[in-house]
Design goal:
By secondary structure, the protein is mainly alpha-helical. Helices cover about 65% and strands about 5% of the residues. The strands form 2 sheets. A two-stranded antiparallel sheet has the order 1-2. Strands 3-4 form a two-stranded antiparallel sheet. The protein is globular and about 80 Å long.
């Protein structure tokens, strides 16, 4: 009964304070932490018993699963590897990470693995926080929203991989060695391949078969939830922390078709945010106290300086080196953090990888981020919206799939496809194509064999391997990809953007499902124009 009373008190107070926080336009996470502080250290009404810790542990499992499924856009990361936004995101992580590592090793004298994990947490950005702030500001579906979102996606994936596998190393019995990093990267690659096969090939077919056999209500959600708990339990037995297992399982399922995603994730999200996640963050409040004041003053100053000044220096360095437009606005978006960071700090505290003193100090810093960054970001992004750029703005080459889920509102291909688009014939020469069809900022082209019949897709990079003196004789047919990724008029853009990112192309032919007739094409420029409400870039008639 004491357990039920504690759970009831925590949930009621957390949700009541969440209502207050919402009216004050503050993060619900602040309310959850405050509930833990009030019922724990202040009133002493709830104690963190072993049974209660079980519910807290389930909360971190659900949280990291949702982060992996909704925020860790691995396809988007791969698609931006050669772009300015990848450079900006990578530098925005590496610069504060380096500063923080120096402080953790020299000032706090942490072990190498622990220092890597804490430094990664300080360098992280929370995509969920950034997306919510942009949405609240009405800027998510604008050009600046796309730029900020893409940069933070890259930064968060890099940071979460570093921190998660550092935590995995801390949980293991073997010491940190130079071989730890390549081994961990190998594990990431192996898990990615296996999980992709399971998510894209096995799970959808399994659900369809089981529906024909038993057709149980909420079948897919039950399979996912049970599989999540099973996965976490199994990986924990082999020495991998449960939060990492939940994160990687979420990543593996992030590529599910839109139909299955909309069937599964709302129920999982409702269960998580309605019960387990408020309890988990309340546990952070129950462990929060003023013990950090026992740390030396210069240690406190060094940690706060690297957590704030180091993070801003990295954000600004990333956008400046990458020469992105509106650097202050994008840098302010990179500063969005708090939710995932507090969750990781709780995990490290429970593992005894950081002291209660350092935990309390860093959680207070993250709460400060949650309170201060949204208004600062709103001001910077608002000012950027009023500014007029002189040159041509730089936008990401592709819409990352996670952004499409946030911004495309269940649109289908036919909602944005331009009808009547013309395509070059496969029998024309390279020179004729360059003279008549090639346009700036487009690298992939749909080619037809005859009207209504798809020949394939031409990639400009393949033309560069042909000597220019042969352009007048070599025809496009010799250079085509004959089995390109295609889409259908009724397919959701959410699914299309993921497939385009997976194969790293900027155009897909649109064909009729029943006849295979070529009816149009969809380019990344079309999708970007749909998201940010601007006209299509480039010539609309070239496909």
């Amino acid at each position: 009964m004491d357990l039920l009373i504690s759970l009831g008190l925590l949930l009621i107070i957390a949700k009541l304070l969440e209502g207050v926080a919402t009216r004050l336009r503050q993060s619900a996470l602040v309310a959850y932490v405050a509930a833990g502080i009030v019922l724990g250290p202040v009133l002493g009404a709830v104690e963190a018993t072993r049974d209660l810790e079980l519910f807290f542990g389930i909360g971190v499992v659900f949280l990291f699963f949702l982060v992996g499924a909704e925020e860790m856009d691995v396809s988007g990361l791969a698609a931006t590897l050669k772009g300015r936004f990848f450079l900006a995101g990578a530098l925005a992580f590496l610069v504060p990470f380096g500063f923080a590592m120096a402080v953790m090793l020299t000032v706090l004298d942490l072990p190498v693995g622990n220092a890597i994990a804490v430094a990664g947490i300080l360098a992280l950005s929370s995509l969920g926080v950034v997306a919510k702030v942009l949405s609240d500001l009405g800027r998510l579906r604008e050009r600046i929203g796309l730029e900020v979102f893409t940069t933070v996606v890259i930064l968060e994936i890099i940071g979460l991989l570093v921190v998660s596998f550092s935590i995995r190393d801390i949980a293991g019995e073997e010491p940190f060695t130079p071989w730890t990093v390549p081994v961990l990267l190998g594990e990431v690659l192996a898990f990615s391949v296996v999980s992709w096969l399971l998510a894209s090939k096995v799970f959808p077919r399994l659900v369809a078969w089981l529906r024909r056999v038993i057709d149980a209500p909420q079948l897919a959600m039950g399979l996912i939830t049970g599989g999540l708990l099973l996965t976490v339990g199994l990986v924990d037995r082999i020495g991998i922390h449960g939060s990492l297992g939940a994160l990687l399982l979420g990543v593996s399922l992030s590529g599910l078709p839109h139909r299955l995603r909309t069937e599964i994730l709302p129920g999982v999200r409702g269960l998580a945010h309605g019960l387990f996640i408020p309890l988990f963050f309340a546990s952070a409040g129950m462990h929060l106290d003023l013990s950090f004041t026992r740390l030396p003053a210069w240690s406190i100053a060094a940690v706060v300086a690297v957590a704030v000044a180091g993070k801003f220096a990295g954000a600004l360095a990333g956008v400046m080196v990458a020469r992105l437009d509106r650097p202050l606005a994008i840098a302010s978006g990179i500063m969005g953090k708090g939710v995932v960071e507090i969750a990781l700090l709780v995990v490290m505290l429970n593992m005894e990888a950081i002291s209660p003193e350092l935990f309390s100090l860093l959680v207070l810093v993250m709460i400060g981020y949650l309170l201060m960054v949204p208004p600062v970001m709103g001001y910077a992004v608002g000012r950027a919206g009023l500014a007029r750029g002189d040159g041509k703005p730089r936008v990401p080459r592709l819409v990352v799939p996670s952004f499409a889920r946030y911004a495309l509102d269940n649109k289908t291909v036919q909602d944005i496809m331009e009808k009547g688009r013309q395509f070059p014939l496969s029998i024309i020469t390279i020179q004729s194509f360059i003279d008549l069809w090639a346009v700036p900022d487009q690298s992939d082209y749909v080619v037809m064999e005859e009207p209504g019949k798809l020949a394939g897709v031409l990639y400009l990079k393949d033309i560069r391997h042909i000597d220019k003196d042969r352009w007048g004789t070599v025809v496009l047919h010799d250079l085509l990809e004959f089995e390109p990724a295609v889409t259908w008029p009724d397919e959701l853009l959410d699914d299309v953007t993921r497939r385009m990112a997976d194969v790293n192309v900027t155009v897909v032919p649109v064909v009729e499902r029943s006849t295979g007739e070529l009816v149009g094409s969809l380019t990344s420029s079309d999708i970007i124009a749909s998201v940010i409400g601007e006209g299509r870039r480039g010539a609309p008639s070239t496909g």
